[in-house]
């Protein structure tokens, strides 16, 4: 089960599912009699286009699935709090290192696999990622975990809608992925951020 859940995250996080879903939607639209399904999904997709910049898709039940406990125990991932945080304030958390797939931040902040709501009560975590996976079909899976696009408008929308919101970012982003090495050396990318 642990390996299956990690495999699922790898597929989702590197947009493979979005590409496969796009191909299936195109196939269904042009080579079957079920063309209405991709048409309806396309209308839904366009109607909800700005969802990656707003917090209107988060689904608590999906974040709390037992499979995320398995995901976090596979690595293992553990979230350690070093200070108390006031739930009446908004925060920006910076995570390092990015790694290739950002396994740790996803497990800690996009799911309840590391018990984030118990460790930081009253705070709503939102992992911010590059906008490409959020522009492909099946992005609803990511959005339902409270994941948002790491854009200025996302920060403005999230941090201006009341207290207790946390934007979790990886300052090095995709550029830092290129610095991932097997030697154990960690490099942080902060210039032009």
What's the layout of helices and strands?
Elements: H1 2-13, H2 16-31, H3 36-47, H4 60-63, H5 67-74, E1 91-94, H6 103-110, H7 116-119, E2 124-129, H8 140-143, E3 148-149, H9 152-159, E4 165-169, H10 173-177
Parallel strand pairs: 1-4, 2-3, 2-4
Helix pairs in contact: 1-5, 2-3
Describe this entry's structure for a reader.
It is a single chain. The protein has 193 residues and is an alpha/beta fold. It contains ten helices and four strands; from the N terminus they run αααααβααβαβαβα. A four-stranded parallel β-sheet has the order 1-4-2-3, sandwiched between helices.
Radius of gyration: 17 Å
Query: What is the assembly state of the chains in this entry?
Result: single chain
Main beta sheet: strand number and arrangement?
4 strands, parallel
In spatial order, strands of the major sheet run: 1-4-2-3
| Helix coverage percent | 40-55%
The span between the termini is 38 Å
Counted by DSSP, the helix tally is 10
N-to-C SSE series? HHHHHEHHEHEHEH
Shape: globular
Quick description:
It is built from ten helices and four strands; from the N terminus they run H-H-H-H-H-E-H-H-E-H-E-H-E-H. The chain is an alpha/beta fold and 193 residues long. Strand 2, helix 8 (140-143) and strand 3 (148-149) form a beta-alpha-beta unit.
